[in-house]
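Appendix B, example 12.
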Amino acid sequence: MSKLDTLQASLEAALGERIQQIKRQFGEIAIQVSAADYLDVAGILRDHADLQFEQLIDLCGIDYSSYGDGAYTGPRFAVATQLLSVARNWRLRLKVFCPNDEMPLVAALTPVWSSANWYEREAFDLFGIIFDGHEDLRRILTDYGFIGHPMRKDFPTEGNVEMRYDAEAKRVVYQPVTIEAREITPRIIREENYGGL
């Protein structure tokens, strides 16, 4: 039995019906669980003697709104978490979809792994995903006055407002964006004998 077979069997035995989907990708296993089971599953993954995922090494938000060239019809937002078991020397990707696209919300994993703190703040800041139970959910990468969530697929590439220092007011001011959206098409010039053609 291979290492991945052992991990998959241990996951299926410990989590059972809570696993909505299990995949093997890139030499690792990825499981998907429901938002209702997310926090409980995280605790089991950390504490179960056959799993022992002691470390959360990454957590990120995902916006599926333009996935598959717009053919995707499932929930828009998801959270993907990368876990590591030092004791067992294996990795796991834990994925959960937010059930409501208008207010994307899942449980915070900070009670299970404190390292989730800044990752969840980043996913909140950039995608607008709310982590229920997070003790300090506030912006971490953008300014406190920032409008919107810049990693969402529908966020305008030029932004909503721009910030500049006003010498007369002696402070930073916000104003409507003055950048014009434009498309730049590179001009390609090829020599007649380019590449021996």
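Residues 3-15 form the longest helix (13 residues). The chain has one domain: 3-141.
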